[in-house]
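// run 5 | inverse folding | seed 20
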């Protein structure tokens, strides 16, 4: 599938421009961020077109509400989890790439206007000093953990996976302890870690460049001995092989798992982070050995792509949560509202967090539909 003009980039990741001498944004980028964020703040004052789900009597679930997209502006790589305390917790990449933020709400729609707290900031020098990307917050063994990507302030493209821990039941309180870096098989570009359990075993999946491979990043899986330590081998589940995974850059990244209907489904994102960004799907039987690569099958076509009719571009870096009714699956992702980007996509802050109901086909596989248009997202992403 490779083309003669599609040579490996000097940095093994689709997001990366040429190295800059300093981790701070350039003046032009600062102006872009300032103007775009000001526009987003203005837009946020517009009355929402959808309302949060109403409160239900104790012990009864509330109905799933329609959602107004964009749900959260200027927040890419979103992660939403619904905890047993009844709150939805939201974190995502801030466009300045310098901090980890957290919101919570009793409803999904409420996240859009929820107060935002900074729970951790990049170091001024040394490790974890630059490119704070794609945080995910998970509850593991009674503690909160945030998995995120970061680079040294002095070497901003040497991005690796790091972990924070908070033992307090309320992640807005207590102390976030730096548990260090997750050690993988190679000292290469790695990011987008997610964790899940399957049949009593905890796993980590992430994106990483493999030395000697003609790609930017592939999707990897390993078992874990604790929330920040891999154990045993790491196996490659997917590498960019189809043309739609190799536009601009040869990328598989942003894995996330949902387990339904006797199968384990893993979404991931592919190609450059412009309008070509899209989602692929891996599937394994629930009773299979997930560390056996033969257990996994890969969709030969993308499952979620840009759509000119709804004017949504570059949908990806997804996760899943559940609606207020406790039953309806919800797809969470980011996308832009326009196709053409001035300059490097990394310098464009307008990837907004979006949500829509995830459908299911008669054969038990997920039906992603298309990314819905701005405004109220009804039942699912049909584009009508």
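// decoded
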């Amino acid at each position: 599938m490779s083309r003669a003009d599609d040579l490996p980039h000097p940095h093994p990741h689709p997001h990366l421009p040429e190295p800059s001498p300093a981790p701070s944004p350039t003046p032009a980028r600062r102006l872009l961020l300032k103007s775009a964020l000001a526009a987003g703040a203005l837009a946020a004052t517009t009355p929402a077109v959808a309302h949060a789900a109403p409160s239900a009597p104790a012990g009864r679930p509330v109905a799933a509400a329609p959602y107004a997209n964009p749900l959260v502006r200027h927040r890419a790589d979103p992660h939403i989890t619904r905890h047993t305390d009844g709150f939805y917790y939201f974190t995502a990449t801030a466009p300045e790439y310098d901090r980890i933020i957290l919101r919570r709400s009793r409803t999904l729609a409420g996240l859009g206007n929820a107060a935002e707290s900074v729970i951790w900031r990049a170091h001024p020098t040394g490790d974890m000093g630059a490119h704070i990307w794609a945080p995910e917050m998970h509850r593991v063994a009674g503690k909160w953990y945030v998995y995120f990507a970061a680079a040294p302030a002095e070497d901003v493209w040497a991005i690796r996976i790091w972990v924070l821990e908070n033992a307090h039941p309320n992640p807005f309180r207590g102390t976030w302890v730096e548990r260090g870096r997750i050690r993988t098989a190679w000292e290469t570009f790695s990011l987008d870690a997610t964790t899940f359990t399957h049949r009593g075993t905890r796993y980590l999946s992430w994106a990483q460049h493999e030395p000697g491979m003609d790609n930017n990043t592939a999707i990897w899986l390993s078992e874990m001995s604790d929330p920040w330590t891999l154990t045993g081998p790491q196996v490659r589940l997917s590498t960019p092989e189809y043309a739609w995974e190799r536009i601009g850059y040869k990328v598989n990244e942003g894995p996330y798992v949902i387990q339904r209907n006797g199968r384990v489904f893993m979404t991931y994102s592919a190609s450059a982070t412009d309008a070509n960004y899209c989602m692929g799907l891996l599937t394994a039987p629930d009773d299979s050995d997930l560390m056996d690569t033969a257990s996994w099958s890969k969709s030969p076509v993308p499952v979620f792509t840009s759509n000119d009719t709804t004017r949504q571009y570059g949908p990806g870096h997804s996760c899943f949560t559940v609606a207020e009714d406790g039953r309806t699956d919800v797809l969470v992702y980011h996308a832009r509202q326009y196709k053409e980007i001035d300059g490097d996509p990394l310098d464009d802050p307008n990837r907004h967090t979006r949500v829509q109901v995830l459908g299911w086909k008669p054969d038990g596989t997920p039906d992603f539909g298309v990314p819905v248009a701005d405004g109220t997202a009804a039942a699912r992403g049909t584009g009508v």
